[in-house]
Recover the amino acids of this structure.
């Protein structure tokens, strides 16, 4: 897959900081991984240090720090109390949804977590057992995760509000002893009852759970099922505190389900030791945070970002972490993020580009930001999807701090490609997440497994072994782990993304491999087209997908959401965007349609559902993704393309005539 044209990207960040030499630091992690990671392992507290740094099991799967005994909850909580930092603020719960702020010290977190662990223990939960958490963004969600880790139990967090069918699938796969849930969540000004969804999921699931701990929120009291449901607060209050249970570094800490192509979700396994070592490393070298600083990841504990960078990494490292319940807009307005940064003196902020696009759409001139003092902010990190250059430029302009796009996956648990701010800060190239992070030997391979040259687009792969924290396998499914990630190229992990590495070593992720489209024999990147469409001054956000074309095989189509106040008709917008693509890629792209829509369908974590958009336009049968934020958007999209007579709707029109 050869990239048809290489665009020169603008550079940002005038002040370049160099703490150490990236090239030598990175090369050491690749050439001498055991020595490199043994040094990092020495930076966390072990009950017993590992006997082996890197090993392989009988399946040929790699494991880190075998023989080491530790406990993730001890590292995140008890260790800091023992070191005399018990009075330091550990968690700031800021609920824009309820206008509530609560601060918890490390000592207070220890008390809460130990009591919840005691409650779970009294319900029969022990080392190696699983517990499903189905919770909103309240502190008890984090406390419950840590409580499971304290006991050596495996937690599996399911995003609060997930549909009963999807929750039931996860219950059947994880087979939990106990489910911890709450009466409701809140989205904007709407209360979302969780308990009816949980009851239906338990009814649908074949695996029957003995007990559910239900946290009753004041805005909605849930009805309880006799002999199964237990009031969270009352039961925890009467429970004895439980101590940390030593676990092997290779024992699972949690299972987090991610969408699979077969419809059955994949249970990503996270081990204890590698996870702790890698996350501790990342806080210093990737995010350039100090233990006395405030770190805020605006995500949800239902996603990997919430696991890694709301709960475990900041607390293991000894930071203050912000636990935010709310949305970037309408809670109450597009100034909410800036308010939180001012109120809690946030030093490093991490969220998804889609959050900033929502803010930009409502407050393009950043007038609301002017109401707040954000001078504490050192840098902003974005991940979860590619940061389009217009959003990058807008953020850089309004914040005047480094904007760091970095790329990683649920499977890795931490950054794969990033600008390692604690090592050597490189100039930013718009559209690139910069360079591989220590431990990740990122290579671009062609269809036959050959290494490709600079600027040649192919499969983004990582040479084995993967560094600490990456999945050792899938939950109870070694064969699927092999077929999904290892079988395509021997000795490599297949990320599923396409991209290229330029002559300076910058990695460009151009989207999932199936986002590369074939237009009359020309392989073109929809990611590159999105960059171009998104650069138009009137476009708030966009998606480009490849739809079926009888003559060319495929052709691209754009869906665009306009900024509030943008004064363009549908025809004017389409004409200008077609011209932009023609000028920057050429007529070979055959970009003919740009449809103005009100909203784009997304997952709850902000990823645009491009595959579903394509299936709608091509008239294919599709399953509504379980992670969709608002299913009614799919109907809106269908009506727009039907009105424009595009794709299968053009055929319908011809047949009608």
């Amino acid at each position: 897959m050869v990239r048809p044209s290489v665009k020169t990207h603008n550079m940002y960040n005038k002040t370049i900081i160099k703490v150490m030499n990236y090239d030598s630091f990175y090369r050491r992690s690749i050439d001498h991984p055991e020595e490199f990671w043994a040094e990092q392992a020495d930076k966390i507290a072990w009950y017993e240090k590992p006997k082996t740094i890197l090993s392989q099991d009988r399946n040929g799967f790699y494991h880190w720090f075998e023989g080491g005994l530790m406990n993730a909850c001890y590292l995140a909580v008890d260790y800091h109390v023992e070191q005399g930092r018990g009075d330091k603020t550990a968690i700031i719960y800021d609920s824009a949804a309820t206008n509530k702020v609560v601060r918890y010290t490390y000592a207070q977190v220890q008390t809460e977590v130990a009591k919840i662990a005691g409650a779970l223990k009294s319900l029969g939960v022990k080392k190696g057992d699983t517990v499903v958490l189905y919770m909103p963004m309240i502190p008890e969600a984090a406390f419950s995760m840590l409580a499971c880790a304290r006991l050596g139990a495996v937690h599996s967090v399911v995003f609060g509000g997930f549909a009963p069918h999807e929750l039931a699938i996860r219950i059947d796969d994880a087979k939990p002893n106990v489910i911890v849930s709450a009466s409701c969540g809140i989205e904007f000004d709407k209360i979302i009852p969780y308990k009816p969804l949980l009851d239906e999921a338990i009814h649908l699931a074949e695996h029957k759970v003995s007990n559910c701990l239900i946290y009753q929120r004041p805005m909605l009291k849930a009805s309880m099922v006799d002999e199964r449901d237990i009031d969270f607060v009352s039961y925890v209050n009467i429970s004895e505190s439980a101590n940390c249970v030593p676990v092997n570094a290779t024992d699972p800490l949690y299972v987090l389900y991610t969408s699979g192509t077969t419809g059955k979700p994949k249970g990503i396994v996270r081990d204890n030791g590698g996870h702790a070592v890698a996350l501790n490393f990342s806080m210093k070298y990737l995010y350039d945070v100090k233990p006395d600083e405030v770190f805020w990841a605006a995500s949800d504990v239902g996603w990997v970002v919430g696991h890694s960078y709301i709960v475990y990494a900041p607390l293991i490292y000894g930071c203050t972490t912000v636990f935010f319940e709310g949305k970037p807009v309408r809670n109450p307005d597009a100034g909410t993020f800036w308010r939180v940064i001012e109120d809690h003196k946030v030093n490093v902020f991490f969220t998804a580009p889609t959050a900033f696009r929502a803010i930009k759409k409502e407050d393009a001139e950043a007038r609301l930001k002017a109401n707040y003092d954000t001078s504490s902010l050192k840098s902003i990190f974005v991940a979860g999807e590619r940061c389009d250059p217009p959003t990058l430029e807008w953020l850089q302009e309004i914040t005047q701090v480094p904007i760091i796009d970095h790329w990683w996956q649920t499977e890795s648990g931490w950054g794969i490609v990033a600008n390692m701010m604690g090592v050597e800060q490189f100039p930013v190239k718009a559209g690139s997440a910069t360079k591989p992070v220590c431990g990740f030997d990122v290579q671009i391979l062609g269809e036959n497994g050959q290494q490709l040259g600079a600027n040649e687009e192919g499969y983004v792969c990582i040479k084995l072994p993967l560094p600490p924290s990456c999945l050792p396998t899938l939950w109870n499914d070694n064969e699927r782990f092999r077929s999904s990630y290892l079988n395509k190229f021997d000795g490599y992990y297949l990320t599923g993304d396409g991209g290229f590495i330029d002559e300076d070593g910058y990695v460009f992720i151009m989207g999932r491999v199936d986002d590369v489209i074939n237009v009359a024999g020309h392989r073109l990147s929809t990611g590159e087209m999105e960059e171009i469409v998104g650069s138009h001054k009137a476009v708030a956000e966009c998606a480009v997908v490849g739809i079926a074309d009888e003559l060319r095989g495929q052709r691209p189509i754009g869906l665009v959401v306009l900024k509030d106040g943008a004064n363009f008709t549908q025809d004017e917008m389409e004409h200008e965007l077609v011209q932009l693509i023609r000028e920057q890629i050429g007529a070979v792209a055959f970009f003919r349609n740009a449809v103005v829509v009100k909203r784009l369908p997304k997952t709850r974590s902000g990823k645009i559902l491009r595959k579903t958009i394509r299936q709608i336009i091509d008239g294919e049968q599709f399953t509504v993704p379980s992670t969709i934020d608002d299913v009614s958007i799919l109907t809106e999209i269908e009506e727009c393309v039907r009105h424009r007579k595009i794709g299968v709707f053009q055929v319908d029109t011809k047949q009608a005539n």
The radius of gyration is 24 Å. Confidence is low (pLDDT under 50) at residues 1-14, 653-657.
